[in-house]
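Support request, please re-run this one:
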Amino acid sequence: MILSLNSSIKKIIANIDLKKRYLFFLIGYFLPHLIAQEPHIMLLDTVYANDSYLFRFKEARYFCRPYGVWTIDKVIRNNHITSVCKKALDEFVLHNPKLHYYAWYTMHREEGYRVEFRNNECIIYLGSKETFSEALLKAGIAIEQSRLRDEEFRYRFYQAVQAAKMSKRGIWSDTKLQRCMSEFFKN
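Re-run finished. Output below.
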């Protein structure tokens, strides 16, 4: 009797242990997906450049890049840019330090931002509706990704680019830079 009771308890414990392992697996698998779908208020920890930031959510840190855009910084670092365009963009950055440090002037460390993850990039809301990607486009220091399939943001990004073009901000103030960016996206 004691022997059968002992083996029954071991089976129950083994089943509980298996259930816990399964539960931990489910939590470990689905939790990142749940976090990725929901916007969270995150604290800005570090701004590295216009296209890279570090946010904190509770004890975790998340590296972010702006959703749906290529910044001038990212284009300059890309290997597919011609030397003429690289030189033109480097000169632009040198003569426009406020645009080069736009993220430092716009976002503030230890301030909370609503952040949503999409396609391994971050949608960072500056106010109630405007995103940081839109702000970069309006400043003329980013361009929309050519293969962006998100209809909501394609329209919003189109409006932001049109505003920058009309007011000749950033890259839209120089025809040489405009040609460089269009050549870059053709390749």
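Residues 1-37 form one domain. Residues 2-37 form the longest helix (36 residues).
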